[in-house]
Every structure is written in structure tokens, then in C-alpha cells.
Amino acid sequence: MGRRNTRNLNMPPCMHPRTQRSGKVYYYMYTKDKPRKEIPLGPDFILALKKYAELNIVVEVIANATFSDVEKRYLVEAVPKLAASSARMYRSDIKHLLAAFSEAPLAQIKPMHIRQFLDDRADKPTTANRCKRVFSTMWNHARGWGYTDLPNPCEGIQGHSLPKRTVYITDAVFEAVWGHAGAPLRDAMDLAYLTGQRPADALKMTESDIIGGYLVVTQEKTKQPLRIKVVGELAALIERIKARKATRSIVTAALLVNAHGKRLTGPALRSQFDAAKKLAAEKNPELLPEIKKFWFYDLRAKAADDTSDQHGDQAASDLLGHDSVRTTQRHYLRRGKIVEPTR
User: Coil, strand or helix: which one is 173?
Assistant: First the structure.
């Protein structure tokens, strides 16, 4: 029979206090796995007990952890830290992963199962590849949490080969759709193109973001900060937007507003864009194939290509907020370099 504990009787097993040099008491919990780890619970006793209860559940499931166990914790701890658009995509992809792995013990998931997952979804290669990346990220979190110490089963498994998107939106196609758009969509198209930002970032821009002659942007996806000079066509566009907003009784700081003066939403933008494309295709049958291929997101690539032609690849990369010009070249520059003939 082991020696009975006579200290910290007000605490559950494996929990103990420690007095810091400052005199403040912090609480910790030892895990039962080997090598034993010490997890800080904080200085507040009640909150420490709460965290202990949450973590103790985790410790108990580690021995036979399943993919579902990882999914539950990942949705609570990791997904909320992502950008809103990324979080929505991750939740959607995780549903596909749950359908395949759900109660599968982590110890039994092998590289061959990842390969099979990809092969079973060969008809949706983009989604399959994205799900594989999410699975890999979740597995790495599981290793950090102590759910498994096995190598990532995605390692060495190649995803589907995907062709690079090569669609370049010509001025003719842009003007055809713009010409059949209402004022809110015209403003959105112009703002997205002139700033080179993602649709979600364009929708978030406000008059308050214009500071000292710059449009200050913090990209939702990467948190990359940018200061875009408010000059030329962008300055004229912002004045046009302000003039239109001034005719509405509703006051909002957003740059992109609907016909009533309220902030323009993502669903409304998509609906208006699809309607304008349909009208443009009907009125410009010679441009039908190109108009059908036009995605609103392509305006970011058009901004990159047009900026590159005028000022070089680095300027395009800076506008898009990329840390590396290679990212811009690989994913956004679609027209090819301008070169001189031999003679």
C-alpha cells in the first residue's frame, strides 16, 4: 500500500501548488504519461481546478485517442484562431475527414489510408488536397497535445496534381461585367482591383482606414499590414464612394455599401456579381467563354499582372502583401513575362 498523501488535500491527484520568487502561488498538473510533463494551470485556484478538469479528460483519452477526439479539441482550441473565412473552410473540410476517419484510433491510421482517402475523392481533387492539408495540421496538433507520438501519416503522400489557374481578366471582360453592374458592384470591382486585395478584405475597408493619405489594410488571412497610397484612380474612386454614400440616410463607415447605404455583405456581392455576369454574357456573346470563367477573386490576379507589367514583379508582390515575390509569381502572375525579340 502506498504512503498516504498528507499535503494539498484540497486538490485532486497530480495537482500541486508552487510558490514563485515573487511570493505568488501558481498551480500545476503532472501528466501520467512518460516522460511526465508539468502543465501550468495559472494562479487562480478556481480557474486552475476548471482547467484541471478539462485537461484530465484529455489525459484519460490519450491512450486510445481517436481522430474524433482530436477533432473535438481542434475545433475548440485551434479553429477559432483562424481567419473567419479559413475557419469556415476548415470546418467544412473536417466534416469530410470525419466521414472517413471518425472513430479510427490514431495508432491505426497509416499512410495508405491517406492515399485511399485521396483516391476515393479523385473527382474532387481540390477538396481532397485541402482535406489532406487539414488532416496533417490536426495530426501535428495531436502530437503536441500528447495524443500520439507517431509520425504524420501524410508525410510522403502526394496530393492530386492540379493545373494552375491561368485565367486573366482582360479589360474588355472587366468592362463588360462592370457595365451591367449596379453602383455597389461597380465600387466593389474597382476597389478590389485597384487595391489588389481579397474580396473579404475589400468588404471590411472603412473610411476610418484612410489615415494620412494611405488606405491602411490588415489582411484577414495573413494579418499582413499594408499602407496603400490614396492617389490617382483609387483617390477618385473613394471620392465617388463618399458622394454616393452622402445621398443615403443610413450612415456607415464601410466603403462598400449596398443601394440603401448599408455595409455590402459577401452573399450580396456574389449575387450581384453573378447577375451582372449573366447580363454581360447575353449582351456580349463574343465574350461568353471568358465571362463564364470570370471569378471575382480573379481581380486580385489581374491587379498583380497589371502592376507587374507597369512596375515589375516586386511591386505586384508588395501590393498583394506577399512576403516572397515567388508566391506572387507562382500563384498570381498569369500573363507571362514581357520579353524582347531576338532582333
Answer: helix
What contacts 223, CB < 8 A, 6 or more positions away? none
Backbone phi and psi for residue 182, each to the nearest 5 degrees, phi listed first: -80, 175
CATH superfamily of 171-323: Intergrase catalytic core (1.10.443.10)
Specify the DSSP element, H or E, that contains 29.
strand 25-30
Give the other-Cβ count within 10 Å of 65's Cβ. Answer: 20
Spatial distance between the Cα atoms of 24 and 4, rounded to a whole number of angstroms: 27
C-alpha cell at 134: 487539414
Cell of 320: 498583394
Cα-atom radius of gyration of the chain, to the nearest Å? 27
pLDDT grade for 42, boundaries at 50, 70 and 90? confident
- pLDDT per residue as tens digits for the range 191-207: 999 999 999 999 999 99
CATH architecture of 67-145: Orthogonal Bundle (1.10)
Residue 228 DSSP one-character state: E
The CA distance from 105 to 56, in Å, is 19
Range among 34-43, 183-192, 246-255 rated most confident: 183-192
pTM: 0.71
Give the per-residue SS3 of 247-277.
Answer: CCCCCCCECCECCCCCECCHHHHHHHHHHHH
Measured distance CA(37)–CA(33) in Å, rounded: 8
Pinpoint the alpha helices (H) of the chain: 45-61, 67-77, 84-101, 111-120, 125-145, 171-179, 183-195, 199-204, 232-246, 266-283, 288-293, 298-311, 313-320, 325-331
The residues spanned by each domain of the chain are 17-63, 67-145, 171-323
